[in-house]
Structure prediction request, 124 residues.
Amino acid sequence: VQLVESGGGLVQPGSSLRLSCKASGITLGYFAVAWFRQAPGNKREGVSCIDNSDGNTYYVEAVKGRFTISSDNAKNTVYLQMDSLKPEDTAVYYCAVGMPRVAGHFGPNLYDHWGQGTQVTVSS
Prediction:
């Protein structure tokens, strides 16, 4: 199983980015896929999750209304559209795959497969 994140970068506050998580060796359509982030000195925290078995999506309060998670099963890819970015969104963003039953739960130990991460920096 390989998960490859892309789409990170350096942007100004208020800007948008779209992160991608492309999978190989696993069919994301059967699993929960979550985005986590980790800022320097902080614990890894969950941001959003999609349960591809039923389409339900989940967001933490800090990103509700600004981030949108979606899935393209034909491309075996999950996206995180991030709008109205704030400096506090700066972190390395990781995607992770777990069984559908963990959807909506953001304990990192619940997820079985992880990508290498992509850096998002929001700064003026």
Summary: The two ends are 37 Å apart (CA to CA).
